[in-house]
Amino acid sequence: MGEKGKDHLSDACRKCGSFCCTYYALPIEIPETKEDYDDLRWFLMHEGNYICVEDGAWYLNIGAKCKNLLPEGKCAAYDKRPEICRKHGHKGEACEFFGEYEYEERFHAPEEIEWYAVREMGLKKEEVKGWYVHEDEEFWKMIAELSARGK
Ligand code: SF4
Questions:
Q1: Which residue out of 4, 10, 16, 21 has the highest number of ligand 1 atoms within 8 Å of its CB and is therefore the one to mutate?
Q2: What is the pLDDT of residues 23-41, one digit of tens each?
Q3: C-alpha distances out from residue 84 to 16, 55, 69, 90, Å
Q4: How is residue 80 annotated by DSSP?
Q5: How far apart are CA 54 and CA 57, in angstroms?
Q6: pLDDT tens string 3-21
């Protein structure tokens, strides 16, 4: 969001497609119970959402395009844009285009968080009735193999 004025769009923003203006992220509690993970499944059933973990902190990324984003990737409120936009990807700050975001985990689909929950909490098949992985025989075979190997 560094240089997206009405008359100027930086090469980086042009190449990236102003991705940073198409979602926002909120910190969320670290899941501890099966119910917590079930709530995360719900978040991931919403279009455009994903969850990421960075430095141990969990975030819900909500896919919602900013109302000020113009079709060509510029900002219609450039002079009025919030501070968070001014700092993003500017003067050494990390951004989607320049990288430096290193996620430990990233979940896009409910199945992904289910797999993680089962592994993290040691959930059994009968405990996750109603989840996608409950029906996934290959998955349970893999879990059995891992547990036989003590992993
Ligand atoms: S206010 Fe402008 S720079 Fe900030 S997210 Fe919206 S379009 Fe992007």
A1: 21
A2: 999 999 999 999 999 999 9
A3: 18, 20, 15, 10
A4: G
A5: 5
A6: 455 455 677 788 888 889 9
